[in-house]
Design a protein that fits this description.
Chain lengths: 423, 503
């Protein structure tokens, strides 16, 4: 390898490798962002941007963060320009991913400062909302991780979330919150089991099986909600799990309200991500599950039951999705509406890919999506000239760019989507 | 531990893969199991390891009858198998692969990799395997991957070790090292079953030989009293000549010339690293090398399936570096691809349809906007006669043919026209001896008609038998060249070059 590289420089031919091209494209993007920040966000900004970091009632009040908008954005633009130029210099290839990540973070900060210039804005509140909105996406993504790690593509996460939301509302109205939650998990698991039966035992196409489940759940819940819930309103009036503060930890400025002043679902999502990570990467059964996803023949020759492993994990994934679905009703409004999941399950799948099939990665990606979601809401209050819908699109554009261009190496489990036929 | 197979029969639909097989495997002995592809060797060993259940017959371990219901049972009984296609998870480490299925664990199902590493090192030391337990499988050369497979078997304390075509992916030098490992295992009291179709290897390593043909044991014996000729006759059922009959070459003008060809792989390393060579009309150039050293990429670049990152390809005095596959084909380039099922034919299409895959658009086969099917069928039938493709009908799906007939069909399609250059990649992989002989004859005939012939093969014997000139590829580079017309070639020198040991 080393000798071959020196050979190429000696012979002087210009060889265009993929990474060099990526580095240059990244450089161009960063320079374009630098122009945007300097000439739009920088020149247009006047006054100070005030970020509130705590509420007056908090025990440890933190002073507000006041940023002079113009100078801040000029500096941000200069940093972006520096990162962009470096991509074109010798050795720029090594910095591609880091520079892009840093660049996007700086862009978001510059944008916030510009939008807040001359006004005040609660950063803490937004981070708290980010966490809340990330929950169904993270749980959907985690369900996807559990399924795809054993090589079953689960498009049905959307339907499982919806089923969980519906069951949570219905049973929650009859038996109370905990009963509703348990029922949502069971129903999610049942749909997971059905998916496993279709794709593992009957070797149905995984995409079609998932789409079928989605359409079935959508049709059934929409019918019941419009025909039954409209007549019998008490069936769609579930109690809601309120937020509760964890003592001491909840009082930490900024981070406290985000992580430790939330409801059951946020804590549940964080705990499930931690457990799944431990399970998949540090336990015997996790190793076996990953082996089934990567090389089922090998697992089979070693006496690991591929079919049973897939059934178990897809069912577990369904249970996680059912729990995530209950968030929509028991964790927020207590009432089911037609198609109230609104594609969060699919975004969860995107978070899974963005997060490289790792539970923590899926959570981090879900936070990015949740951040964009809450940013869009808060910006409506700040009255920026940009329509908030465009901001709502931004994370998905970022996903396309990142997944298509920069996570080339993030490979799904090798056997992902392929049925295993035992000889 | 001694194992006996008694009257084992296994059918797959109408095909009898194993027909009343009796076999004895003894501790401290290497049993060589010889047979052509499709003779039923792998089926038999899959039965022994518990992957398949036999239709009739018994397996006896130390005289006692056992029944295996799944692969776990075979492992539990002490029978371990090293598959021809490695059963390793590429993104796991050596230790993780070795312990998979029998993992040492702590509390909360915690995977005890520390103990695992120590156990792997212990086995390493005992048998001289020298494998780093923390290396990722995908970063290891195949020779080492094979040792990992052996580690896996030993870790499960197997007493019977089945090696299915273990040398197929190894260089001649790696084979020697591998044989040392096999001997040390045998001396430690393990029973070894060595499955292969390579005659000289089986004579070198075995203590006892059984030959399998059409699912039956057709011969048994002591390697000291057997020769390659008698073994080949047992294996094929008739006398076989191993030399390819050919006259001296008459090289003409350069037909293909490749200069400074470079290509990158998915990791941005060189797949082809400044490759330069020429193929003249009327000569066979063979490219030797262990699989995965750039041969596939070279063939794909020459035939136009992949565009090179830099460099130039000239064919028949024209620059074809950016020419399309069809243009190259029209100019007279024939391509016999390395994997006929993946890129040489369409299994669900009929033999007739497959025969015109490269020429269906020609005026000869069109009737207005339609394809002239009667004409296509007549032509295909003629090709089948010319190239000895044995099929009951040209309307049969090509997938129903035997491997040998499929390959002859591909060869017929590619050579039944005016060609100037034949690029043949692994032209005889997985074929029976009869088909191999026939395809070799055809390639030599193409040469004698004045074509340039480029052959890529991982079988060194094939390269040495066919080629007038041999180029050795290693890590994307041509590292050595041998001229067979100037006297015999040292097999060892080629083997060393294949391992990258040349200057």
């Amino acid at each position: 390898m080393i000798s071959s590289q020196t050979q190429s420089t000696q012979s002087g031919t210009t060889l265009d490798s993929g990474k060099a091209r990526q580095a240059r494209i990244t450089g161009a993007i960063l320079l374009a962002l630098a122009c945007l920040v300097l000439f739009v966000f920088g020149m247009d900004a006047s006054g100070d941007a005030t970020f509130r970091l705590s509420r007056p009632t908090d025990p440890w009040a933190v002073p507000n963060l006041v940023v002079p908008a113009g100078p801040f954005n000029y500096i941000a633009g200069a940093i972006l320009a520096f990162l962009g130029v470096r991509q074109f210099l010798q050795g720029g290839v090594r910095w591609t991913s880091l520079s892009l990540g840093l660049g996007l973070a700086i862009l978001v900060m510059a944008f916030l400062v510009w939008a807040t210039a001359g006004k005040a804005f609660s950063l803490t509140g937004m981070l708290q909302a980010t966490m809340v909105r990330a929950v169904p996406i993270a749980l959907g993504g985690l369900a996807g991780v559990l399924c795809e790690r054993v090589a079953v593509v689960n498009i049905a996460i959307e339907g499982m979330l919806l089923a969980g939301a519906f069951t949570g509302a219905l049973i929650g109205s009859l038996l109370g919150g905990w009963g509703g939650l348990a029922a949502a998990v069971v129903v999610g698991g049942a749909f997971g089991f059905i998916l496993a039966a279709l794709v593992v035992t009957y070797r149905m196409d995984q995409i079609i099986a998932g789409v079928v489940i989605n359409l079935f759940v959508l049709g059934l819940t929409s019918y019941v909600s419009s025909q039954v819930f409209s007549e019998y309103r008490h069936l769609n009036n579930a109690p809601v799990f309120r937020a509760f503060k964890i003592p001491l930890l909840g009082d930490i400025p900024v981070i406290g309200p985000m992580l430790f002043k939330q409801n059951l679902f946020v804590y549940g999502a964080l705990i499930l991500v931690a457990i799944s990570t431990y399970y998949l990467f540090f336990t015997r059964n996790g190793l076996r599950a990953r082996a089934v996803g990567e090389h089922p023949e090998a697992a089979d020759t070693l006496g690991i039951n591929v079919y049973r492993t897939r059934y178990i994990h897809v069912t577990l994934g369904g249970m996680v999705a059912g729990f995530g679905g209950a968030w929509f009703t028991l964790g927020s409004v207590g009432r089911f509406d037609e198609n109230m999941t609104g594609g969060r399950g699919f975004i969860g799948l995107a978070a899974m890919i963005f997060g490289r099939w790792h539970p923590v990665g899926a959570l981090a990606a879900a936070l990015v999506f949740g951040f964009a979601d809450s940013l869009q809401q808060k910006l409506a209050l700040l009255r920026t000239p940009i329509p908030s819908e465009f901001l709502a699109m931004s994370p998905y554009i970022a996903t396309i760019i990142v997944v298509a261009g920069f996570i080339g190496k993030a490979q799904p489990p090798a056997a992902d989507g392929k049925p295993y036929v035992k000889e | 531990m001694d194992v006996e197979l008694r009257g084992i029969t296994k059918r797959f639909g109408p095909v009898v893969a194993n027909d009343g097989i009796n076999l004895q495997i003894r501790a401290g002995e290497v049993l060589g199991l010889l047979g052509e592809n499709g003779a039923g060797k792998s089926t038999m060993m899959n039965i022994l390891s518990g992957l398949y259940a036999p239709d009739t017959g018994d397996i006896l371990i130390n005289g006692k009858k056992v029944v295996f219901e799944d692969p776990g049972d075979g492992i539990a009984a002490g029978i371990g198998m090293v598959h021809q296609h490695f059963m390793l998870v590429p993104v796991f480490t050596v230790a993780e692969n070795v312990i998979l299925g029998v993992e040492p664990t702590g509390r909360f199902d915690y995977l005890d990799l520390k103990t695992a590493r120590k156990q792997v090192r212990d086995i390493n030391d005992r048998y001289g395997l020298e494998v780093d337990p923390d290396a990722l499988i995908e970063t290891l050369p195949v020779g080492i991957q094979q040792r990992v497979e052996i580690l896996k078997v030993l870790f499960r304390s197997a007493d019977v070790i089945i090696l299915d075509e273990p040398t197929a992916v190894l260089t001649p030098q790696e084979v020697e090292d591998f044989f040392d490992i096999v001997r040390s295992l045998r001396d430690a009291g393990k029973a070894i079953v060595f499955i292969t179709h390579k005659l000289h290897e089986i004579l070198e390593i075995s203590d006892r030989i059984s030959v399998l043909r059409h699912g039956r044991i057709t011969g048994e014996g002591d390697p000291a009293k057997l020769t390659t000729e008698t073994l080949a006759e047992m294996m094929v059922g008739r006398p076989v000549s191993f030399t390819v009959d050919k006259s001296p070459p008459h090289p003409g003008r350069p037909m293909l010339s490749v200069s400074d060809l470079c290509l990158f792989d998915a990791h941005d390393d060189f797949a082809l690293d400044h490759v330069n060579f020429e193929v003249h009309s009327g000569e066979v150039v063979g490219i030797a090398g262990v699989q995965g050293n750039g041969q596939t990429e070279l063939v794909e670049t020459i035939t136009g399936l992949t565009r090179p990152a830099s460099g130039m390809i000239r064919f028949d005095d024209e620059n074809v570096t950016r020419a399309s596959v069809r243009d190259r084909h029209r100019m007279g380039m024939a391509h016999i691809p390395e994997d006929r099922l993946r890129s040489g034919m369409i299994s669900n299409f009929t033999v007739a349809e497959n025969m015109v895959l490269n020429s269906y658009y020609a005026p000869a086969y069109s009737k207005g906007p339609e394809i002239d099917w009667p004409k296509v069928q007549a032509t295909a039938a003629q090709y089948c006669v010319d190239f000895d493709v044995r099929t009951p009908s040209v309307f049969l799906p090509a997938g129903n043919l035997s491997g040998g007939n499929q390959q002859k069909m591909v060869v017929a399609r590619e050579l039944e026209r005016e060609t100037k250059l034949v690029v043949a990649s692994q032209p005889t992989r997985g074929l029976d001896v009869g088909s191999i002989e026939y395809i070799h004859e055809r390639l030599i005939a193409a040469r004698d008609e004045g074509d340039g012939v480029l052959i890529v093969s991982s079988e060194l014997d094939e390269i040495m038998g066919l080629s007038d000139r041999i180029l050795v590829m290693f890590e994307g580079r041509i590292v050595a060249e041998f001229d067979t017309t100037k006297g015999p070639i040292d097999r060892n020198a080629v083997g060393l070059a294949m391992a990258g040991a040349s200057s």
